[in-house]
């Protein structure tokens, strides 16, 4: 009987051990969440020491993990990339909300970061709502020629809805490796640079718990010298960036837009993929990776508007701005500066102009410079001077029961608006 009991006890122990191992795989997120900063899928080969320079198995400064903020407590001093706003959660086109393709942002812990190390390795970090072992694709889209969109003097001649002006796409393809695509013009949907396997990426636990559970980092890198050899770019080349991921495995999102999931920095209300890309890119001034690394890059000031019509002989110009009070507004006539003013209460006014200055056919444009930002574009809201005088406004208007009544110049066309401030 003793012989019979001992195998049964050992078998139970084996079953218990098997159950514990199986359970740890199922609830791994909860186990990992106990040590924020832990690398739970390390890179292999040379990549291990590039992504974890002190080789202690943590992306935090020490094995104590992240305490309060993983941006400032990171072993590698990553720099946030510039986006129009705080990245919302649950804004994915495909995939689960707060999941493995949902970029997340606490407002003080950014969704995507960047670092160029002394060996010219270009590192990126994505903050995700969760992490799984499945194969998905995470892209950095890069504009290198300062041409983007389909209108204006800086429009890209190769514009398409899926690619309004990017030249390079870097892709972290989990379970496959890291790949670089040439997407300039007709895109090459096969990688031109490949880092197969797990040498160039790792997964770790972030400090943030957006959506109420642990968030995760996807860190990866490419060798900048390889980009220089393939595309001619250097760390001194001005660039603009958009970040997007994809539910498909090992795919360029430029080549596979239908399975795109989340775009970092916007909530999706921008509409089409192209318009969301434009919102992100037009929020940036082209900045070189070396300057980003030094923390020298800033967002672009939003374009000011110009009230129209502008007529010959006008002595005052005005408009609106989304920027704070005190933002500098420069006003140009036919490309020549005619005056400057500042924003107050969301509006700006340039007065005291010579009545002989503005002539029919002149172009009027403006730019803006807010504190802590780069100067705006100067080609938005270009207005032409007209020779027609402004119509006289209505003399009176009142809401009377179910009608609106008033008086105006005889023969004038009266338009009624609801909920619109003109």
Order of helices and strands: HHEHEEEEEEEEEHEEHHEEEEEEEEE
The Rg value, from CA coordinates, equals: 28 Å
Portion of residues in beta strands equals 25-35%
* Count of helix runs: 6
Major β-sheet profile: 6 strands, antiparallel
**For this entry, what is the oligomeric state of its chains?**
single chain
Secondary-structure-derived class: alpha+beta
* Low-pLDDT runs: 1-33
Number of strands: 21
Helix content: 10-25%
Query: What shape does the CA trace take?
Result: elongated
Give the mean pLDDT: 88
Ends: how far apart?
Answer: 95 Å
Strand order of the largest sheet: 1-9-10-4-3-2
How would you describe this protein?
The chain has 422 residues and is α+β, with helices and mostly antiparallel strands. Helices cover 14% and strands 26% of the residues. It contains six helices and 21 strands. The strands form five sheets. It has a six-stranded antiparallel beta sheet. A six-stranded antiparallel beta sheet has the order 8-7-6-5-11-12. A hairpin with a 2-residue loop joins strand 20 (396-400) and strand 21 (403-407). The longest helix has 25 residues, at 2-26. Mean pLDDT is 88; it is low at 1-33.
Task: Describe what is shown at a glance.
Helix content is about 15%, strand content about 25%.
Features:
single chain, 422 residues, six-stranded antiparallel sheet, disordered N terminus
SSE blueprint and pairings:
Layout: H1 2-26, H2 28-32, E1 39-41, H3 47-51, E2 79-80, E3 112-116, E4 121-128, E5 137-143, E6 168-173, E7 177-182, E8 193-196, E9 201-205, E10 216-223, H4 224-231, E11 240-246, E12 260-263, H5 273-281, H6 289-293, E13 310-311, E14 317-320, E15 328-333, E16 336-342, E17 347-350, E18 363-369, E19 383-386, E20 396-400, E21 403-407
Parallel strand pairs: 13-19
Antiparallel strand pairs: 1-9, 2-3, 3-4, 4-10, 5-6, 5-11, 6-7, 7-8, 9-10, 11-12, 14-17, 15-16, 15-18, 18-19, 20-21
């Amino acid at each position: 009987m003793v012989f019979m009991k001992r195998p049964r006890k050992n078998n139970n122990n084996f079953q218990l051990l098997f159950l514990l191992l199986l359970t740890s795989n199922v609830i791994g997120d909860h186990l990992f969440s106990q040590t924020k900063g832990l690398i739970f899928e390390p890179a292999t080969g040379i990549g291990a020491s590039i992504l974890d320079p002190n080789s202690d198995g943590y992306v935090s400064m020490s094995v104590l993990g992240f305490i309060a903020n993983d941006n400032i407590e990171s072993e590698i001093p990553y720099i946030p990339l510039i986006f129009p706003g705080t990245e919302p959660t649950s804004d994915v086109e495909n995939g689960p909300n707060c999941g493995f393709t949902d970029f997340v942002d606490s407002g003080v812990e950014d969704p995507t970061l960047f670092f160029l190390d002394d060996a010219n390795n270009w590192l990126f970090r994505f903050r995700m709502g969760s992490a799984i072992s499945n194969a998905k694709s995470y892209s950095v889209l890069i504009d290198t020629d300062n041409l983007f969109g389909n209108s204006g003097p800086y429009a890209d001649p190769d514009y398409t809805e899926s690619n309004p002006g990017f030249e390079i796409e870097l892709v972290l393809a989990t379970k496959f490796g890291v790949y670089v695509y040439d997407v300039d013009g007709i895109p090459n949907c096969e990688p031109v640079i490949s880092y197969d396997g797990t040498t160039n990426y790792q997964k770790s636990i972030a400090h943030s718990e957006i959506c109420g559970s642990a968030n995760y980092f996807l860190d990866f890198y490419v060798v900048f010298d390889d980009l220089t050899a393939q595309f001619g770019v250097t760390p001194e080349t001005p660039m603009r960036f958009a970040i997007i991921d994809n539910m498909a495995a090992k795919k360029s999102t430029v080549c596979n837009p239908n399975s795109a999931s989340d775009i970092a920095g916007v909530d999706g209300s921008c509409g089409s993929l192209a318009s969301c890309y434009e919102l992100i890119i037009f929020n940036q001034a082209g900045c070189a990776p070396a300057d980003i690394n030094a923390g020298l890059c800033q967002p672009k000031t939003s374009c000011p508007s110009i009230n129209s019509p502008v007529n010959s002989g006008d002595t005052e110009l005005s408009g609106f701005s989304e920027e704070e009070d005190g933002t500098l507004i420069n006003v140009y006539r036919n490309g020549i500066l005619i005056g400057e003013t500042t924003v107050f209460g969301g509006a700006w006014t340039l007065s005291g102009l010579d009545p002989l200055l503005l002539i029919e056919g002149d172009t009027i444009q403006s730019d803006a410079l807010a504190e802590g930002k780069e100067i705006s574009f100067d080609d938005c809201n270009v207005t032409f001077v007209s020779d027609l005088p402004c119509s006289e406004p209505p003399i009176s208007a009142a809401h009377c029961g179910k009608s609106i009544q008033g008086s105006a110049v005889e023969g004038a066309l009266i338009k009624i608006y609801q909920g619109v401030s003109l």
